[in-house]
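ESCALATION

Customer reports they have been waiting on this structure for their group meeting. Please prioritize. Original submission:
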Amino acid sequence: MQNNEKLVLALPKGRILDEVMPVVGRAGIEVEPEFANENSRQLRFSTNHPGLDVIRVRNFDVATFVAFGAAHLGVAGNDVLMEFDYPEIYAPLDLDIGHCRLAVAAPVDGAAKEDPSRWSHVRVATKYPEITRRHFAARGVQAECIKLNGAMELAPSIGLCRYIVDLVQTGSTLKANGLVEIERIADISSRLILNRAALKTRPDEVGGWLQRFREAADAA
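Update from on-call: job pushed to the front of the queue and completed.
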């Protein structure tokens, strides 16, 4: 990493973006107007700080950009951090946004009879195969994971599997698709994440932004 290159902040698309932008603003960052254009195909944006650009990518990709040094800092849910477990990422700050939970769900018909302690093998649809395998393996259950990137709630109704592991916020989507939460795996929120190498080689700049975000989160 060249010390004269711009720092890059990776922000997630979608629901979390609306929650994180007030924090970004309180940290003193103003992104160019095109960033607010939902129809824009532009992915990299300048800010009011000449040494800082912002990129807007998928939530899962934020961690990858930061881990490989393409972005120096970013905002990602701890669900993503748990799934990838990149050693190159340092996640020092919970921004107290993006609250939801990662849970196991099953069809409501028969869910009351579920006894997880008696499972030995389960087939699960999820976009979190690593978390899911680890969760079930911790109590000796083999999890056969079917990787899906969306429409998880459809999987049990069409016979793909009995269980899903997915993010749950209100539970309304589960209910609408005849599912019910039967087990909570983890509480989720969004974190400021840093590339460890960038923090070592550019401690004043990267550490300075960490402090700004810490103050911005405290001011919420």
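Sent to customer with the following note: The two ends are 33 Å apart (CA to CA).
Escalation resolved.
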